[in-house]
UniProtKB/TrEMBL annotation:
Annotated Gene3D superfamilies: Aspartate Aminotransferase, domain 1, Type I PLP-dependent aspartate aminotransferase-like (Major domain)
Cofactors (names): pyridoxal 5'-phosphate
Keyword Transferase: yes
Natural source organism: Hydrogenispora ethanolica
Record key words, sorted: Aminotransferase, Pyridoxal phosphate, Transferase
UniProt-recorded name of the protein: Aminotransferase
Amino acid sequence: MEKAKRISRLGTENAFEVLAVVNRLVKEGRSIVSFCIGEPDFDTPAHVKQAGMEAIARNETHYGPSAGLISFREEIAAYISRTRGIAVDPEEVVVTPGAKPIIFHGILACVDEGDEVIYPNPGFPIYESMINFVGARPVPAALLERKGFSFDLDEFRRLITPRTKLIILNSPQNPTGGVLSRADLEAVAELAIRHDLWVISDEVYSRILYEGEFASIASLPGMKERTILIDGFSKTYAMTGWRLGYGVMNRDLARDIARLETNCESCTATFTQYAGLEALQGPQHASDRMVQEFKERRDRIVDGLNAIEGIRCLRPQGSFYVFPNVTEACRRLGFKDSKALQEYLLFEGSVAVLPRTSFGRKNDGETEEYIRLSYATSKEQIREGLRRIKEALERRA
């Protein structure tokens, strides 16, 4: 029997593939310092866990509305209204099991086969995967180190064609840690309005910001109605396993996205939504402390990487990733590319990182090599991982 052709177009998230190798090596007795998974190494705040357990105890374990509990959507609407400076109605909110379904549903609802979708590259690999899966054409927009991992706006404008239907943005970014400026967002907004385009704005790292103020394209004039804003609880509240996210969009599209939820998952688990409600309404101290700890780790890992010959690393403004340039290290030590370096560091240095190609194929004309490290791990592990990287590269020299 033949499978559907679209399955061959489906990509993956390579971090989990590298993690599987790491777990195998650990099972074999190896000590591996892993920088590969983007998951906070903190526990879900106690009051949030308690709210989830209390919801289960009072039997909040049945079906809920496909769009999410109304009390939860009201709180999300109030939160987005407050943080993005726009008026949001609960009917414009759709709750999903994690933020990924909004990426998938948003592309399904807004993009036809043959349409073109502009997305950030390097970027979260699920963007390109979903674009390909629905039969659209992925159009990568290069994030450039020389611009702090933002776009060259002249190049970005040239990507738009009569087939363009959607632009995907992510800020703060995975994998680079870059943050799009308000000026960049204003330029993209002008293009979206002029060409009548949808925008998906992935803002799951919006609270993990170290300098400046977060800006959302949905806050700009004329953009709320054409933007699908994505946020969630995995990163800010260390709730990755709870699977809880949401999208904010115009009311008409929200009805369509909710119908996709009906067809796909029926609804998001009810008791997790009560935990999310408490996360938004309750004290924010645990999240604030986590972000402060991430900032200290960021400084430690950036300084450490920049002290290793052949590596240079920008200091990211947000998320919990660094994306160092390893071009010189690859050339000096004879590695074909960052994938070869990644494999060497894993098997010879006992350090797990991800190569540039885990986040999309190289852009036309791109010659530099990069790796991604997640610093969602302890300072002790960061110190030891940096020591191992330095020793492994010196041993190769």
